[in-house]
């Protein structure tokens, strides 16, 4: 049997990188974590004998090539600040050039629902038009186009795995994180409204095993796939369950589009959230029956169990990024 090649996680220090690393480690596979800060990588992966820590400068072609040397597969998780999405396409272009010159065979981009724009009826399959009406959606679409255009070029196969919003243990960048912290501390949770519209979330630890499988499924490449959550839930229901675990009634401060606009006068991140607020009022829900047909049944954590684990993590003061 052919030995499985080494996987590199580019932009590994975030929460998704940690989920994929845990799945690779559980499968007994050695992997490389690549990021700008050795300290952040050391903190997240230093305990794992399977992890090799490498720093890079994604603006430097030689640095990208060195970070990719000897890898069979690269999983691309590089984030940019929310108000700097214009960086996504040029960073992707440089990375693709670096990994192909290093002889990498496969690249997986972890993508979002942004490139679709508004859903034309949920749940949506992969054949839904990609017609983003937002700047962030357009930048993500450009990034994806670069990845898919590179498929079959210079020995590289590529795919995009599209995820809904995620939540999990101490993920500060999750929409739901404030709810778990609020429930654990007995304080008021700040949430972005509206909170009674059903929304799809994926429990981040469920993502890693799927990506691990895709690194060794050659027939998956050359297209994009959906990985869905376990149906939909409202933010109010998440809050009800989380606060109930603490024996409390939910206490929420809901910021709607108007409040985000006002806060955006002082806070650039809040200003950026206004553009994407359509996803709160008109959610995009993914159908992942194609991926299930390819990989077989996908294990997913129920909302009840995911909320319980996220609440416990908040109560124990666990913080990921």
UniProtKB/TrEMBL annotation:
State one Pfam family annotation.
Epimerase
Example of a GO cellular component annotation carried by this entry: cytoplasm
User: What's the domain of life for this entry?
Assistant: Bacteria
Q: Where is the NAD-dependent epimerase/dehydratase domain?
A: 10-210
GO-annotated molecular function? aldehyde dehydrogenase (NAD+) activity
Q: What is this protein called?
A: NAD-dependent epimerase/dehydratase family protein
Q: Which organism is it from?
A: Paraburkholderia antibiotica
